[in-house]
Design brief:
mainly alpha, two-stranded antiparallel sheet, 2 strands, about 60% helix, globular
């Protein structure tokens, strides 16, 4: 498997003078070339391991998901202990705060992934492979955004203002969608990337195992698996735009920015199957994420103002950690209280909008026609198998 663009990060970022303008008060990045090489090597090794595990499609058991989730929680915490002991408590707090922010945003990713998997009627045996493609795509995109962000921060202090405004605008959008009940409601038929693929390439009638390509009437075609992967990768771009500025609001060290993103993403495949039912109960997550992003956006804006006018105060990292933990705790508690005594399906505010993604009684999920494909009609006059709507 070719190395993703994040492999180009060490040379570009190990010597980047990001700290003088970064929210952290450090003088240099902790990411030496050796540490970059070891971290990237470990991330690539874990990705390869995940591809080997998902090589043969199978339904993930709860035991398997819990074991891998525990591993992917222990790993970043152990890395955080290393950062704390090796580089001091300040960098340790930055790493922990950044990791919590990225993990909360990654849970938001899982909401959208879950609804896309349901909308495309992805068989459970193929779901973890789709999630893995999404995670790899997110890592590559965030690696690119981190490199661009580090270069911009090193040269232009107004980058902090731009990042802050982006986060505030994103917070407003998330809050508006949460109030309207339209958050986490992707419509595959409206995704430009999916529509572009359908315009030029036919789609097979159903899933063909783990294959992304097949044939329709002798023509080369893509399978619904390829469509859902395209949709997931398209959403990765949106999430990267929000995620990278958010963690740059916690630390200006590009190595810690990458590490927090990588560790937050790597465990999503297993975490999805552990939290699949509980995710629907976090009905107030949108409000919490809006508050966190707005707070970090204000923190970045104040840091930019402090560089211009030293009298403007800055928000300490410990305060940021307290705010993030407090908001997540309140959001979780109110969500569980609001959905107490209700089944997960009833707790889903978008159940009606995504009814096609629920388990039907007449057909098992794996046999339902995927998005963009219609079944053969009982009588003539309608579209045939493999024809797109």
């Amino acid at each position: 498997m070719p190395a993703p663009p994040v492999a180009l990060l060490p040379a570009a970022l190990a010597s980047a003078p990001a700290a003088p303008l970064a929210p952290a008060a450090a003088d240099t990045t902790v990411g030496s070339p050796t540490l970059w090489a070891l971290t990237l090597g470990g991330v690539l090794a874990l990705i390869v391991l995940d591809f080997l595990i998902t090589r043969r499609p199978h339904e993930v058991s709860m035991r398997e998901a819990v074991v891998w989730s525990a591993f992917y929680v222990a790993l970043p915490l152990g890395f955080g202990a290393f950062v704390w002991s090796r580089f001091g408590s300040e960098r340790g707090v930055e790493y922990l705060t950044g990791y919590l922010v990225e993990k909360s945003l990654s849970v938001d990713n899982l909401f959208v992934f879950m609804l896309l998997l349901a909308s495309f009627a992805v068989p459970r045996t193929l779901q973890q492979r789709v999630l893995l493609y999404g995670i790899v795509g997110a890592l590559v995109l965030r690696g690119i955004f981190i490199a661009l962000g580090a270069a911009a921060i090193a040269r232009f202090d107004w980058t902090f203002l731009v990042f802050g405004l982006v986060l505030v605008a994103t917070a407003v959008k998330i809050l508006r969608d949460a109030v309207r009940g339209t958050d986490h409601a992707p419509d595959p038929d409206r995704l430009r990337s999916v529509r572009l693929v359908r315009r030029f390439v036919p789609v097979t009638e159903g899933y063909e195992g783990g294959r992304m390509f097949g044939r329709v009437a002798g023509r080369r075609a893509v399978t619904p698996l390829a469509l859902v992967v395209v949709a997931v990768l398209a959403t990765d771009i949106v999430f990267a735009v929000d995620s990278v500025p958010a963690v740059y609001g916690i630390t200006g060290d590009p190595f810690l920015v990458f590490a927090t993103n990588a560790f937050a993403l790597l465990g999503l495949r297993a975490l999805f199957f552990v939290l699949e039912g509980a995710l629907r109960r976090l009905v107030h997550l949108g409000y919490g994420l809006a508050a966190i992003l707005a707070f970090i956006g204000a923190k970045l804006t104040m840091h930019w103002a402090h560089l211009r006018w030293p009298a403007v105060p800055e928000i300490p990292t410990l305060v940021s950690l307290a705010v993030v933990v407090g908001v997540l705790a309140v959001t979780t508690a109110t969500s569980l209280a609001a959905t107490r005594g209700r089944p997960p399906e009833a707790a889903d505010p978008h159940r009606d909008r995504h009814a096609s993604g629920s388990e039907p009684t007449a057909q098992p999920q794996a046999q339902r026609p995927p998005v963009g494909v219609v079944e053969q009609p009982v009588e003539g006059g309608g579209p045939g198998p493999g024809e797109r709507t």
